[in-house]
Description:
By secondary structure, this protein is an all-beta fold. 1% of the residues lie in helices and 38% in strands. β14 and β15 form a beta hairpin.
Amino acid sequence: MAYTTINKPSEYFNTKLYTGNGSYGHSITGVGFQPDLVWIKSRSNADNHNVFDVVRGTDKGLRTNTEDAEFTSVNLLHSFDSDGFTVDDHTPINRNGGTHVAWNWKANGSGVSNTDGSITSTVSVNTTAGFSIVNWTGTTNATIGHGLGQKPSMVITKTKNNIAPWLVWHKGLTGGNEQDRYIILNTTDGQNTYSGYWGTGVFTSTVFGVSLNSLNNNLGDMIAYCFAEKKGFSKFGSYTGNGNADGTFVYTGFKPAFVIHKRTDTTAYSWLMHDNKRPDYNSTDLILHANLSDAEQGGYGMDLLSNGFKHRVTAGSTNASGGTYIYMAFAEQPLVGTNNIPATAR
């Protein structure tokens, strides 16, 4: 029996490793599709994260490890291509001789108008993969159409033209009403709760709410990356650490290609990023931090299994006894596709 309608997850999400050459027009191929969101980080050097999407355009970048406003340059991402992307000579994404990783998602081109919310948004959405890029101009407390056709499991927002934090709503956050819960991508802070932080609108199959703060800031231009859970392809949830090298097993229902996780019950712990390309065998102990510019680090062992992931360390950032964590994960291979062939461990 088929477990998912997505037999080949790499048609919607894929990780690509490459070496920079410091030159204008460096073509990166092998992604497998034309990406609409490209998140790039230097592995070898302490350079900022750089995020590009097709709705904002190739010459506009955001950095997940800072509160910086959007920056514009002709030397950033040169183009989104049919099998990848082309970078120019911006050092953090094309350092000569430096190693880089790019995480790529497929939405649906430059976007269309969406009037589901009280503010009209521009939405590029892939309902098959449960991913949308949403752009709007803030006013007051409002609702924003996301185009997913189902309730999102995670929403990441940023004010583009102001210095402001990256604000995240995630289905695994707890306490208070769901529109009160948030966590910040660019810091080590744990979960926060504030009444009506996401406005008075709830998260639904058509809209999410925003309030007059960093979510909808003073007529600011806003961007959101919205994710809905798709069986056999993506999973968003929480787990409790066990403080053991034979660590907590987290069931996803697929062989993971990419996992981000964050401790939420206390402060001082970063967002950790694992993928199946660094290195391409278990245990995947090489990590990058979404909230830091640090180069790649080792010593954070995680097994990517046929149906989930399992921690192999006891660090407070990943698997402390009784620690609470949220995660987002995307598949390398579904547990069982329409060909009825089961996934195997790495």
